[in-house]
Amino acid sequence: MNYDYIIVGAGSAGCILANRLSASGQYSVLLLEAGKADDSFWFKIPVGFTKTYYNETYNWMYYSEPEKELDNRSLYCPRGKVQGGSGSINAMIYVRGQEKDYDDWAQAGNNGWSYRDVLPYFRKLETHPLGNTEYHGANGPIGISPMKDAVHPICHVFLKGCEQAGYKRTDDFNGAQFEGAGIYDVNTRNGQRSSSSFEYLHPALNRKNLTVEREVLVTQVLFDTNRRATGVVVKQNGSARHFTAKREVILSAGAVDTPKLLQLSGVGDSTLLAEHRIPLVRHLPAVGRNLQDHLCVSFYYRANVKTLNDEMRPLLGKLKLGLQYLLTRKGPLAMSVNQSGGFFRGSENEAVPNLQLYFNPLSYRIPKSNKASLEPEPYSGFLLCFNPCRPTSRGSIEIASNRAEDPAKIRINALTTQKDIDEAIQGCELVRKIMSTAALDEITVEEISPGPQVSDREGFLQYFREQSGSIYHLCGSCAMGPDDLTSVVDERLRVHGMSGLRIVDASIFPNITSGNINAPTMMVAEKGAEMILEDALTVAGEQAKESAKVFAAAH
Ligand SMILES: Cc1cc2nc3c(=O)[nH]c(=O)nc-3n(C[C@H](O)[C@H](O)[C@H](O)COP(=O)(O)OP(=O)(O)OC[C@H]3O[C@@H](n4cnc5c(N)ncnc54)[C@H](O)[C@@H]3O)c2cc1C
């Protein structure tokens, strides 16, 4: 079967592309997704992400290779395997990042990607209650809800503590002032998850020129002898099928599976491909390199006031909250558990904020067994968690075999630079500084983990090594840049040295952004879709010129 565009992966980015590329009715679009439809109630209700966290039907449930600097632990790396991708199973915190993140993208040779360049795409994708302003949009598909008026009261104690510790307050991390303590926005609409699947793909499903195939594993991209992508091979119900693309194949399979698919298709480091006996199409060594992630660690506290643990843990409490949600679409089940936090400088020498904090008005431990569920702890507790914003360690994605069914090897290589080690310690010091303020001291009985015996740089670092985990922001594994030795796509997201092949997802980030990366990924998709459509017009223009020349020569 033949389509103008084939999009691989109906995740945060893929759903946006499917809508935008099919909107004019001019192009036929095929969207291929390995997972099922997002028709369960758990995808709608914000708290539903606790149900999909360890659900192998909807989650690829990857693990990293053992991380040497993290006590040889394998970190859990959940990824959405469902329409909407990781955007269907995430915690919905909506943060764009800071200006410098994108200015650095542009400075690395990517014209058109500075903060001022990408701001229009952030505005385009959202409907924000502030309406059309310099920073916000009023007509975009994704609903943004500030949690400001609804957070648990102890979040305000946290904000007071930050003020007492000398930190600024911000009312909008996505507005004029990124830095400071505040309450997060979430991508919800009327108390329901506002994912790119619900907001972009669902409304487009009836278009005649859009085909969505689910439960289809794309196993290979096909190329002609000119290295032009001509289509894909998929596995569906145990048998192989081919689809061909007249214009482009666009990879949106995410930061783990996009580089894996390129490597399986013969585009990647020639040594790695030879090791797995994959015929080389193009030596592109940066495929799978430059992987980045945010690693966080939590500090746990027992409170002398009621926290969300007291409401969410007992059966009666659960029933009450469930009823509140069903009747009003409000309450804790309509929000994220990460309610307040902010962006801070870990030292006076930092030019911009380098640490992100989350203050959660409840406490829970990530269960070791994937058979257990995420449950609040059995006491009035809360947690304060941090992650460095822009780690400098770089990891990799590499195929483990030449079979598409085998998960790729994920190496985050955490804490392999001195800067990252310093920031892990800075973060612990920042948590302790805020927790020692009068406001927080007043509601705290004790620090449960790591506990007061951990109080120096060595102890903090060891705690981070033993307890930190991924906060699920894998990106950068097919970075954008001008040089084909160090990057994979150019500034129009075209794979270097290939034609008819683009990447539009979190893998193109040259550097990770300071904050949660779903909003930046959706921005990449909005901008990517516009570039694809512009380039289609250019191609059409060139073809028309060519035909006119042929016609003129013949007459
Ligand atoms: C548990 C969790 C919590 C998170 N919380 C937040 C948060 O609160 N805020 C935030 O901003 N970010 C959060 N994130 C991160 C964010 O959701 C992701 O970074 C973002 O969704 C990535 O988008 P993507 O389009 O690059 O990839 P994805 O959304 O992961 O999409 C990739 C899609 O491709 C499909 N696919 C993969 N391989 C194949 C194949 N071979 N054939 C066919 N289909 C394939 C996958 O099934 C998936 O649907 C979280 C992530 C997780 C997992």
Automatic annotation (TrEMBL):
Protein name: GMC family oxidoreductase N-terminal domain-containing protein
Pfam families in the cross-refs: GMC_oxred_C, GMC_oxred_N
Cofactor(s) this protein cannot do without: FAD
Lineage summary: Bacteria, Pseudomonadati, Pseudomonadota, Betaproteobacteria, Burkholderiales
Keyword Transmembrane on entry: no
Family: Belongs to the GMC oxidoreductase family.
SUPFAM superfamilies per the UniProt record, alphabetical: FAD-linked reductases, C-terminal domain, FAD/NAD(P)-binding domain
InterPro entries named in the record: FAD/NAD-bd_sf (IPR036188), GMC_OxRdtase (IPR012132), GMC_OxRdtase_N (IPR000172), GMC_OxRtase_C (IPR007867)
Originating organism: Paraburkholderia sabiae
Domain Glucose-methanol-choline oxidoreductase N-terminal: 254-268
Keyword list, A-Z: FAD, Flavoprotein
Flavoprotein listed as a keyword: yes
PROSITE patterns: GMC_OXRED_2
